[in-house]
Design goal:
Oligomer: heterodimer
Number of helices of chain A: 1
Distance between the termini of chain B: 23 Å
Number of helices of chain B: 7
Radius of gyration of chain B: 20 Å
Low-confidence stretches of chain B: none
Distance between the termini of chain A: 94 Å
Helix content of chain A: over 70%
Structural class of chain A: mainly alpha
Amino acid sequence: MLFQTATPDTSGYMIAGFVVSFLVMGLYVASLYLRSRNLQRDQEMLEELDAAQRKTVTK
Amino acid sequence: MRSKPLTLTILDVLALIVLGISTYLALFFAPTERVMGDVQRVFYFHIGTAWTALMGFILAAVFSIAYLVTKNLKWDRYQVAAIEVSLVFFFLTIVLGSIWARPAWNTWWTWDPRLTTAAVTELIYIAYFMLRQGIDDPERRARFGAVYALIGGLSAPITFFAIRLFRTIHPVVIGGANAAAQGGFAMTADMRVAFFFALFAFTIIFVDLYWNRIRLGELQDKVEQLKLKVTM
């Protein structure tokens, strides 16, 4: 018991670790969502453009 | 974009649930490690992310071979998705390791063999995306990417075995011991539950993100083809 040392308080580092984990994963999920949304918009716009081009050719 | 498959939606929900359970096990179920204190709890996420990231890099190397053999761009999409998700997870591994190292080793970073190989692996895959950005032709990009990812894939086993082959201060918690290690600990039964659940949880999360990333890649290819069609 004489040589036993108290457990250090490292809870601040632990909190930082979990905050970083959720932040990074959250940012990645957000990036997937945003990229997907932007691409869907591009796709819709390009399909409209393609359809308009076809109409012009048939006329 | 095709509507989301039901299996993927279920997987999304499952990923959130297992992440929640894993966090609970790490924070409240596992006992506090006596020497390091609460910071040891980040170890569960550190190992979980490292395991999935290294598997992802190896998976990408396998897809590289599949692409080089078949020339089917599907394998290129799978490879890019595996590398991107692994890169994010491996970044987390390095950051969590650094946060743990500060109180355990009294430094945020040291050029130890494990830390060095991990940093090199991360940089190799950051450079992979830079290489791809510089090539416009999809087939040329896929071919260069496949060769690069195949060679880069070697860094994953080197990183994994670094603590088993070299004299390093990084502890070997599973399957071995390292005489020079600092901050090692023996896992109790409750710690093992949190540890193995974290491995399971991060595997599920990885698969979920990976599947979502593949779908994004398919959409990217579709938009790229439409752009070509409209401009011609």
